[in-house]
C-alpha cells in the first residue's frame, strides 16, 4: 500500500514544533517530512512572482529557508501558523 499524501494533522505538526522548540532532536527529524511539501508549495508560489530568468528552484529555497530558521538560535514555535509565517518570511529574504 502506498503512503498517504494527505497533509499531516495540524495537531501532529504543532506537537512536533513544541518538541523541537524544547530541544527534542527526534521531534525536529520527524517534523521535516510532515511539512516539506507544504514548504515547497510556499516556495513555488513565492518564486512564481519573481522576475524571468530566476534560477532559484523551490527545493533550494526551502533548504535555504530551513537553514535560516532552524539555526542555533532557539525558536519557541507557537504552532503551525507561526512556523509557516517564519518560513514565508525566511523565503522572502532570499
Q: Determine the strand fraction and express it as a percent band.
A: under 5%
Mean pLDDT, to the nearest integer, reads 77
Which term fits the overall shape? elongated
Number of domains: 1
Secondary structure topology:
Elements: H1 10-21, H2 25-48, H3 58-69, H4 80-92
Helix pairs in contact: 1-2, 2-3, 2-4, 3-4
Question: What are the salient characteristics of this protein?
Answer:
94 residues, mainly alpha, 0% strand, elongated, disordered N terminus
What would your notes on this structure say?
The structure is a single chain. The protein has one domain (10-92). It has 94 residues and is mainly α. The chain starts with 9 loop residues before the first helix and ends with a helix. Helix 1 crosses helix 2 (25-48). Helices cover 65% and strands 0% of the residues. The relative contact order is 0.17. The chain has helices at 10-21, 25-48, 58-69, 80-92. It has four helices and no strands.
In short:
The protein has one domain. The chain is 65% helix and 0% strand. It has four helices and no strands.
Amino acid at each position: 500500500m502506498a503512503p498517504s499524501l494527505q497533509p499531516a494533522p495540524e495537531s501532529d505538526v504543532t506537537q512536533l514544533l513544541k518538541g523541537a522548540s524544547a530541544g527534542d532532536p527526534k521531534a525536529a527529524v520527524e517534523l521535516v517530512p510532515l511539512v516539506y511539501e507544504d514548504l515547497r508549495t510556499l516556495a513555488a508560489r513565492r518564486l512564481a512572482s519573481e522576475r524571468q530568468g530566476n534560477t532559484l528552484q523551490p527545493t533550494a529555497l526551502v533548504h535555504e529557508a530551513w537553514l535560516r530558521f532552524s539555526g542555533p538560535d532557539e525558536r519557541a514555535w507557537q504552532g503551525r501558523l507561526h512556523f509557516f509565517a517564519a518560513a514565508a518570511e525566511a523565503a522572502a529574504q532570499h
